[in-house]
Specification:
elongated; 245 residues
């Protein structure tokens, strides 16, 4: 069991950040509909992810770490909390100009209350995302060294879930007017660009070494029932079968 199981919820998890961006450029009525829908779908995605979080953390506490080829997928666990942080803060920032004056009795006050609650809730989730990032990073300490971690496409998990963490970091820094957090986000961005370049170079190297995009190689090596004719033996006498053309 790995956090890759969270992937079915990822389409829902990116709704909140998109809703926060789209609602900023719409009129108040349409923006409110977008925010309500985005908040609902983001909540569904995060709650589904939360159930998988519990299974993942239970596995870490009762069993060994995932095997090396699957271990980069641990970074996928960073995404749900980080996307929720970015989406929640962005949607809350747009409420002040979106809510009608009579919304829940007092629109401006309601918008202020919701923004305060959203920002402090997002701060918790941001800390949770950082914790999952550190757990995933330290889990790879034993993989450092030549030949210990063969390239697979799961290496891109080093990149894309952490873009959500960086986006969440900038959102938290801006919301709390923290220059220090925004500087941390800039540093993380520089490191992430270097990691992306490293993973891309290693992917090209893996293609040249026929570690991926080659029969019986990669994560899908058992898909499609392909078998090398040289290794296919007759069940009766052990001799290779004749191949008619």
């Amino acid at each position: 069991m790995t956090p890759v199981w969270i992937f079915p919820a990822y389409p829902l998890l990116i709704i909140g950040p998109h809703a926060g961006i789209i609602s900023a450029d719409l009129d108040s009525k349409r923006a409110l509909d977008i925010i309500v829908g985005g908040w609902t779908l983001q909540g569904i995605g995060f709650m589904v992810s939360l159930t998988i979080y519990s299974a993942f953390i239970y596995r870490l506490m009762t069993q060994k770490l995932p095997q090396e080829s699957l271990r980069p997928g641990m970074f996928v666990s960073v995404g749900p909390s980080a996307f929720t942080v970015a989406g929640t803060i962005n949607m809350a920032n747009n409420l002040q100009k979106t809510l009608p004056n009579d919304f829940m009795g007092d629109g401006p006050m309601t918008a202020t209350i919701l923004k305060v609650v959203a920002d402090w809730m997002a701060l918790w989730l941001w800390g949770f995302a950082l914790w999952l990032f550190l757990v995933s990073a330290f889990a790879h300490v034993s993989c450092i060294g030549p030949g210990k971690l063969t390239f697979t496409m799961a290496w891109y998990s080093f990149v894309f879930p952490n873009t959500a963490l960086i986006t969440a970091t900038f959102a938290v820094g801006k919301s709390f007017s923290s220059t220090a957090i925004q500087i941390v986000g800039c540093v993380m961005t520089c490191f992430l660009i270097l990691v992306w370049l490293f993973v891309f170079v290693m992917m090209i190297r893996a293609i040249k070494l026929k570690q991926i995009l080659w029969p019986q190689k990669g994560e899908d090596k058992d898909e499609g029932g392909w078998v090398d004719p040289k290794n296919r033996l007759r069940p009766d006498d052990g001799s290779p079968p004749s191949i008619s053309v």
